[in-house]
Amino acid sequence: MQAFKNAVFLINPNRFPGYARKLKKILRIYKASHIVECRRPEDFRREVEAFAAGEKRFLLIWGGDGTANLAINAYMSAHRRISTTSKALGFLRGGSGNGIQDSYEVPVSIRAQIRSYLEGMEREYIQPVDLIRADDGKASLYCQLLGIGLDARVLEYREGAGRGRPGMMNYIAASLQSWYRDFSLLQDTKILEMEDGKYAFKGPRSNAEFPFKHFTRETRSPLIEIATRPYYAKMFKIAPDVVCNSGFMDIYSFNFIHRREILSNIFDIWNGWHRRINRQRAKRDRPVIERYEVRQVKLMKREPFAYHADGELRRCDNPAVEGRYTLHCSIVPSAVNFLVPGSFYRKFHPFEDL
């Protein structure tokens, strides 16, 4: 229990107020001394910055993926001004998606989460992780998952037509709408200018790689995902081969030509079984899911476009340079420390007890 005296619990109660009340009751049993509720983003940001400047080492955040992204960006903003290398962030399951929690093996029940993070604080289960820095010409931000195409269009539908609320059913309805109405529109030309990386194909029987300093790929892929974490939300493993501290971003280009190919492969796509998909597509001489590991990439289109950062919808509509709207992404290695469960930590530190 002593470890909790060195922690701040920051709660966004807007989504699930009942669970927030339950969490606070459990935290009081564990004698957590610093519990803060923030309903407005500006208050939340201010509390994260206060943590970065303060003496406590651990910040535990309860909220959805949007709350997690807000916390990461507020912390990184403070991190540039304050020496915060000994501090760490942890994420409790407080949303409907919980992609960041899935990616770092956070348990499901509230009590199991509290016990897991208590053990992590006592045993120093701290893992440095990479972040993506994205700059659309108007603003820059940090994230671990960024995508354009189908997933961004789904978020546009969800935020329009009276479905602005998060939640799985709203997401499914928006997904069906974008898949049925707009799939062909999403197959417009996109250009990837990649630096310092490699093409890294993972196959069922053999792998293939080639390194490059600079590589330009023109594609009509309806979905491109850039990631340093594997899960999008609800155990949707959109980037299955990601390693959180590799110093590279993974880029996945889902080269489906017909919308029925999404539907026929949806189970394998959801589970991240890209090798299985590629095996079948290679047999039929169909385009595969391409994978790259890079340090920098410019994603360009001739029209303004929507993209998401950790599930938060944004637009790249800055004035075009040479007729192209450009989103620039670069890797920030070991950008921030995460407090993680022991099951995750031991995978990255297997020999500490030897």
Automatic annotation (TrEMBL):
Q: Which organism is it from?
A: Marispirochaeta aestuarii
**Domain of life per record:** Bacteria
- Residue span(s) of domain YegS/DAGK C-terminal: 149-338
An example Gene Ontology molecular-function term? kinase activity
| Domain DAGKc span(s) in chain numbering | 17-124
Q: List the Pfam families hit by this protein, alphabetically.
A: DAGK_cat (PF00781), YegS_C (PF19279)
Q: Which InterPro entries does this one have? A: ATP-NAD_kinase_N, Diacylglycerol_kinase_cat_dom, NAD/diacylglycerol_kinase_sf, YegS/DAGK_C
Under what name is this protein listed? Uncharacterized protein
